[in-house]
Amino acid sequence: MLTLTEVEALARAAHEGRTDKAGRPYAEHLRAVAEGVRSRGGDADQIAAAWLHDAVEDDALTEEWLRGAALSDRTKAIVLAVTKRAGETPQAYAARIRATPGALLVKEADLAHNADPARLAVLDEPTRTRLTGKYARMRALLGLDEHA
Fold it and tell me: Which of 72, 105, 110, 134, by CA, is between 20 and 30 Å from 143?
């Protein structure tokens, strides 16, 4: 099995040269989500999934690679659960996350970092407004507002 240090290095390498919407190195987002999972009490499987949560969706790694990787079945299931699929409705996406043990915590940490006001502040107003609404709708679909 890959260690968390190896998973982190692999995720950083897979996203090398990529930036987020604010132009920051994408690895900063991965680190923030992994730390968010850790601080919310997540376990090693969830932390590994946090490092890899966007890898398949962003074509940084293939689903085939993930299936063959030296990772727990639970980590693989979480990564696949949080990977958006073409043409998928937000409702179907949220249902899959809620149905996959451990995935909700990873998505919660992802949404928390995506919706960080400091991160959003550098974006133009239309983008900030669109993303704020998008993240709030997903939190509601996931039932995360029930815990607030």
Answer: 72
